[in-house]
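Sorry to interrupt, but I need a hand with the structure work. Could you write out one complete protein record for me, on any chain you like? Just paste the record in under my message, thanks.

. . .
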Amino acid sequence: MRITLVGSRHFGVTTLNMLREHGVGIVRVVVADAEDRLAATAKAAGIEVVVQANPKLVVASEIAPDTDLIITAHSHARIGKDALAAAKLGGIGYHPSLLPRHRGKAAVEWTIKEGDPIAGGTIYHLAERMDAGAIAAQDWCFVKKGETARELWERALAPLGLKLLADVIDYAKVHKALPAKAQDEQFATSAPSLS
């Protein structure tokens, strides 16, 4: 399986490492910032790195030829329709909430702010609307009393994202397709900016 990874920062690096350990081919890494630690890690591993022309949008020319699957890991860029069409299976991303709850940025912060006793993570199909694509995998965890968003992310949600991504990749390797269940729009919430 040939993967183009679009991402940044620590979660991008841990996703890259998990994919390499999982025996899939990472044919290209796409980043918004050439100085990002994901870019440095990919270059050190001999993986081609492409810097997005527009930090808010990934286009088809930035996706490696013959890509089977695009994976996003801590990317705030939209993956354009043309880019998704360039990959045989399209693209998936990890969102640290039980989609459709807490769509948008700052999902973990909103989980804490809303006092949710349960949090979770979702692997979803990248689509035209942000965080609104079909669900490929989902799991949950409890939120500890007094836990901060960062503590919840580091303790439970980041590891959960890596596990769910690995599960979906294993499924795709066997079935040459991705699981997909439509999100139930009646439960959708969109997190406004916290700033």
